[in-house]
Specification:
- The complex is a heterodimer of chains A (809) and B (163).
- With 809 residues, chain A is mainly α.
- Chain A folds into three domains: 444 residues, no CATH class; 77 residues, no CATH class; 106 residues.
- Chain A is 61% helix and 4% strand.
- In chain A, helix 3 crosses helix 4.
- The termini of chain A are far apart.
- Chain B is α+β, with helices and mostly antiparallel strands.
- Chain B folds into two domains: 34 residues, no CATH class; 101 residues, Immunoglobulins (Immunoglobulin-like), CATH 2.60.40.
- Chain B has two helices and eight strands, in the order H-H-E-E-E-E-E-E-E-E.
- In chain B, the strands form two sheets. Chain B has a five-stranded mixed beta sheet with strand order 2-8-7-4-5, with no helix packed on it. A three-stranded antiparallel beta sheet of chain B has the order 1-3-6, with no helix packed on it.
- In chain B, a hairpin with a 6-residue loop joins strand 4 and strand 5.
- The longest helix of chain B is centred in the N-terminal third of the chain and has 17 residues.
- Classes of the chains: A mainly alpha (809), B alpha+beta (163).
- Chains A and B meet through helix 5, helix 6, helix 8, helix 31 and strand 6 of A and helix 2, strand 1 and strand 8 of B.
Amino acid sequence: MSASALPDRSGPRGTIPGTQGWASEAPARAVDDQDEYRPPSRGYLPLLVTVILVVAANFLAISPQRLPFLGPALGFWFLVAHPAYLVYTTPVWRTTSVPERLGYSITTTLLVLMVGGLAINTALPLAGVDRPLAPVPVIILGDVITVLLVWYRRRRGAQVSWWPAVRSAGRRETRLIVAGAVCVALAVLGATRLNNGAGDQLALAALAVIVLTIVFLLYWQRLVREGVIAVVLYLVAMALLFATSLRGWYVTGHDIQQEYLVFQITDSHGRWDIGYFHDAYNACLSLTILPTELAQVLHVDPPYVYKVFFQMIFSVCPVLVYGIARRYWSKPVAILAVVYFMGFPTFFTDMPFLNRQEIAFLFVCVAILAIMNTEWSSRRRRVTFLAAALGMELSHYSTTYVFLGALVVAWFMEKFFGLFGGRRQRRLAGHRGRSWGFVGQTVGLGTLLGVMVFAAVWGGLATDTAATAVKDAGASVSGFFGGSSSAKSGEVSYGILSGKSLSLQAQLNQYRQQTIKDQAKFPPNTFLPAAEVAKYQTPVVDLPSLPLTAIGRLLTDAHVPVAALNSIIRLGAADGEQLFVAIGLVALVAVRRLRQQIGREFFYLSVGTVFMVFVNTVLPGLSVEYGVLRAFQEALILISAILVAGSLTAFSPLGPKWANRITYAIGIGIFISTIGLLPQLTGDYPAQLSLNNSGQYYETYYTHPQEISAVNWLAMEPQVRQVGVQTEDFTYRLGFISGAAASGPQGITDFYPTVIRRSGWVILGYSTVHTGLAAADVNGSLVIYKYPMQLLQVSKNLVYNDGGAQIYK
Amino acid sequence: MALTGSRSVLSSRTGQAGEPPTRRWWPVLLPLVLLAIVASVYLPSGRHQWALSLIRQPTPFTVLAFNKATSLPTQTAINQPVTVSFAIGNREGRTETYRYLLTQSPSQKASVLRQATKSVGAGATWNVTTTVRPSCQSSPCRIQVSLPGHPEKVNFLVSLRTS
């Protein structure tokens, strides 16, 4: 049953003033009634154009010719965009909204590419093909997918056409789409300028245009169609992601370095095999088979497969979040929900470095959309849900485990309230109408077991990589009950219920003591003499904030403490978002009218995701291994609309008009701060990578040409990996991750003074050479400390120096 | 304008017909933007800004490294010849004239053991193999290669024994 068909929507009982109208006016659909519709035939011209483009893509993929920009665009169209379009326009997804249809289409394509790639990767070697993921097999796979989809689509009839919609775009719609495109262009140019050492002007302009686009999207939302909102949100998301992903000419970021390593291992072998590098990253097909397939047809510099094309795919995620929110709520609430989702710092500062999770999040969204679909039969919902769960597991194991945890909580709640609340609900149904908008259950015991089987078969039997996750979870639980407080990520400090954690200096001191203790396990004279090392301390250093800007100086002159203002807004945003979620959940429980507008399973699942965030906060090991912020970003897929609803509820005593106004203002205000626009305009706040050539992420994760030169030089030296390389090991930035040099174990360990080996190689990166600072990952917290360069100078030979990197032996 | 038959990739219009007529902005704005772009391309400083925003600019640097870093001498006798082999790679993007200095420390007198100068083309590498006779005051003795005018230096320690 659709939300619009619900009875008793106008009754005043149980209504919170100010929250009227934030439920969905009508379910968002792509096509209202498609049963008897067939678009007028346009003959064979579209088919002819398609054939020409596919042939051109085939030719460009196998020929040595490179066609800048146009070639990669055609390759992406061939392997991703066109199959997704073909799936989108089939009648399979009838009666679904634009975002929902888009989500099913894009994830179907990704799943087919991963599973199809796995199939040829397994089958072709049996037929004597050594490189099953070389260009020719991948192109044939793409051709087969295209032919099958075209055949199916022509047989069943295309259900939608796009040209009339484009032609009928209104002025405001055109303006919004142009503004979105300008955001993308400015973000790309802004990142390029920063990479060339120029200023932040264009990057800042990109953020300003993004904010204006969002504001006008909210202002004009009544005049803008669902599809146009989807396009605008897609472009805005892409601009935010590009602003970070395009920083640096090489692979920039944290996890992406290891993600790139497993991609390069697969690409260089022309085949995926977990045996090449037995690591959990190598079990993610989103990092191995998928980028390798894309690389074969795109022919771009390999880092740009992640830096550009994965971001183009992931930009669909906020559109799907809009689709999820739109299922139960109005356009403004759904748009604001996306604003909170995109404005959460993890979205644009970390997700471009977590490509496996980007793909997995798309499957999470689709799984939720399937659960929430009120028009499908339960069987169809379950089949779609299980397909999404399979895609999730193949893409990223941890996302699946967190989602599985939320599902289990939802299932238990369903059973618990089914047992004890059934009588009351029947009474409610008899006297006051139904208690929930939709009570159908998708996730039963069989479905849960299905997801567990996927995790066990893929993570256990096929790749044998789940053991680490199980071990981490076990260690986390025992750490919790053992009262461990040390191994807790600094991220948890943003949590309302986080408790206290050790200072960074105390954590670094603990790390030092632990490494000294661990030396006993090694033969004598393995490390530099303890007496020599003891002379050098490693004080923790706070990186300097941005200097005050003209606006910041004006504020300071007006006695406004800029640094405190920025900090208060950020901390207020973190606390406020958690508070609004809590209020939203409570309101949904307490107010029958609100409850009647949402699905019961959706609510239970939302509680489940909040519970998983809580688990990540309180279990020490999980906060280190997975991260609270990533868990919260995953939860926001579901709860961002509840957050907005909570905000409306909180301000409802002021009346509907002011509740709306304040909710808009707070949402946009937090967005302006968290995307970095406000701190950049005022200064006196830590620098953000997407806007500066400074700050924690820049110093730690930005790769310079001199560093690449140093790594290439070291790769030519004999017995390097056997002897061992020491550097900032957690970043993988100075590892052998490119081309033929990429192989499994890197032989790289940390270069903290107490663990420096007498015989090992030590690489100092650009930041350490120029600032004398180094970074360490201590219990999941990034600790910046003063590196004792003198220790290396008196103990080792400086054998390589290019001004931006130094190598000691 | 309403959608024909209201079947499209995008959902049906919600209120488009209610839009008030407004002045079109693009016939004015577009020529102005194009004019600004043409003007900026015409000016050298504008061209530089475009280049910074559109094209990757080279990062100039110089590489200085020992050729056999794993087999550098670890001990020798005072004033006995020691072979030193290193490479100077020019990644500055233009021809550079490099002068290298081989020095030792600690030392009381002028400690330059060897020096030479050569012009190296962009992208080329100057491989140097030479011998020095260390005579440091104390052991261990640090032999250093430096490039005056450039910050890059490399060095190694060698234990000296009296012969």
